[in-house]
Amino acid sequence: SNGSLGATLSVTNQSSVTFEWAALYEGTYTLETLPSYVPKGYAAELAECQRYYWQYQHNNGMAVGTAYMNATTEAYVTFAFPQTMRITPTISIDDISTLRLMCVDGMKGVTAYTVNRGTPNQLSVTFTTNSSGTIYTPCVMRSNSGTIIAFSADL
Length: 155
Known about the structure:
Elements: H1 42-50, E1 53-57, E2 60-71, E3 74-80, E4 90-93, E5 99-103, E6 106-118, E7 122-129, E8 138-144, E9 148-152
Antiparallel strand pairs: 1-9, 2-3, 2-8, 3-7, 4-9, 5-6, 5-8, 6-7
C-alpha cells in the first residue's frame, strides 16, 4: 500500500445517480472482477453499534438495573449491557428525578450518582437516595416518564 486512495466515477447522460450499497476493497477491480457486496444483516450491524452506545428508555416503570442498599442512603445499581462495549463506558441520565429504587423496605427516589466501577460488560453506579433504607436490602431500579440512561464507549 502506498498510502493513497483513488476513485473514479463517470456518469454519462444521467441526471442523478443512486448508491444502494458501497464497499471499499484493496486492489484493482473491474466490473467483472469486483466482488458482490453482502450486507452483514441487522443483528450484526446492531451488535457493532452497541459496542459504542446503548441506552435504557422506558415509559412504563420497567426495571433497568439490579441494586442493593450499601449504606442507609446509598445504593449500588448494576447495569448489564447486551453487547460487550469497546471500553468501559460513561453514563449520562437526562432526568434523574424520575428514577426510583424499589426496595424491600420501600420506594426511594435518587438525587445523585457516581460511577463505582465498571467493565465493558457492566457498570456499577452508586446512587444517593432521598430516604434511608436498610443496608444490604435488595432493590430494583425503575425508570419512568421516558428517562434516558445512556452509556457511551466513544472516544
